[in-house]
Known about the structure:
Layout: E1 8-13, H1 27-39, E2 40-48, E3 55-59, E4 62-67, H2 72-90, E5 98-101, H3 104-111, E6 121-124, H4 139-155, E7 158-161, H5 164-171, E8 178-180, E9 207-210, H6 219-232, E10 238-241, H7 247-256, E11 263-267, H8 271-280, E12 284-286, H9 295-302, E13 307-310, H10 313-316, E14 324-327, H11 332-344, H12 346-363, H13 366-382
Parallel strand pairs: 1-2, 1-5, 2-4, 5-6, 6-7, 7-8, 9-10, 10-11, 12-13, 13-14
Antiparallel strand pairs: 3-4
Helix pairs in contact: 1-13, 2-3, 3-4, 6-11, 9-12
Amino acid sequence: MTPSQAPIDVVVVGSRPWPAELPDDDLNLRTARALAERLGGRYDVIVPAGRARPGPVDRDPVHVHRVAAYSRPGFVLAARRGLRALRERRGPGRRPHVLVSSDPLAALAVESSRARRGRPHLVHIQGEVLTPGPGYGGPVKRWTLSAASRFVVRRANGVRVAGDDLRDAVARLTSRPVALIGDRVDTRLFTPAGGADGQADQAASDAIMVGGLSSAKNHRAVVHAWARVVRTHPDAVLTIVGDGPRRSSLEALIKCLGLTDNVRLRGRVPQDHLVSLLRAARCLLHASRTGRRPRAVLEAMSCGLPVVCSDIPGHREIVPPGTGLLVPPDDIAAWAGAITTLLGDPGRAAAMGRAGRAYVVEHHDFETNIDRMADLIRRLSAAEPEPVR
């Protein structure tokens, strides 16, 4: 914040829990701190407690308020109570300048709260929430999500989106500001091998997967494909980072396919070690059947890796042509072919890696996008207040 800019108070409502331990390198906390420093005012965050104990957590200059919520409607009610408590605690002379919600559910809590009256509201919209596909559940659930998303977009004073297609769809629903601001990747930490930040891990791998071991992440399809890859690349190694409920079944599959020397399950690793593992790999694989834009893909691209991803909307948004390959999620032959293509053509793989790194630096750099978000919040704060429709 420059000396000429007045401090701006912000209250953020998010429907996903933050980590119970809340380490300093947590991306949510880093984002909140960076915005608080740029805006210069009080910065409050209301989130469900999840596994943590409900109550306030002071991580100056960020003030986190964990609320007890055991269902979606329960979260809306708990968030409204949290907003009311903050409003009463601040007093009439210290109302927030801007309210921010991280998703449609959080936005419903904001829009139904008295704190919304006379205050601008910025909502984040991402994924297929306007026109949700089968991955979001049954017809009733998808219709409800679509209706809620359209409702909050029309009422909000500003909307932040992370993709061009979504920006165009949102712009058709509102005349308010719609800002394209990408996700946040620390491109100074996630750098290619041989950079100034350190050396690559000695245990190099030909491919790496990063993410929780759940059925939605579709590790089984890639492991089956890897059995085909080793027919032409007998020493090829796949490193899988992450843990979860499917670990034991994945271990059994690896053993059944005779891949114990070709597939390594590393479990969860600290962030600095993850960077080393990414730098030591030749490509990243991400096979999810559904989901938003996975940060693991962007972090790998920031490290200069070409990527092979399932052909789903979340991946299409962040893997432009020339940075990686998209294949059907459950087409094992296509996975094996794409992986073999990259392993057999190092020049093409390197060119993809360079293009991916350039794309992430331009569109998803942490510091750049924090500046963009702070500027958007300042614009909404400075605008003339409008009555809630």
